[in-house]
Design goal:
Length: 127
Amino acid sequence: MNESTDGAGSAAQAAGPARRRSWGGLTDGFRGGPDDLDTIAAHALTTFVRTHGDGCVAVVQPLGRPGARVVVVAPDGRWGDAVVSTQQVGEQLCERTGITVQQWDRELSARLTPTPADRRRMAGTGR
């Protein structure tokens, strides 16, 4: 959802991230520092909520390397993810945007609706 660029967008461009389709995978290939990464994630999260409305739910998962992955699922099943510098930062970003943070459960997993592009990407084709 690269709909608009504000201060966060221009900082993202200056840092040289690999910008991609929708919010899903936005931070893939990112080469900036942790503060830049968090700024991009905050902008993407805000845009996602603005686009999909209230009722979004997030799961913040620690990664095997420093950082955390924030997965947000909208009521319509659309989803996006991004990497932030720490799990605490991910939870704070969700709190600021009014998104409920929870763990994966059957209901949330069933709500997730991958697109054909998501399926190709998850299959490891990279296309």
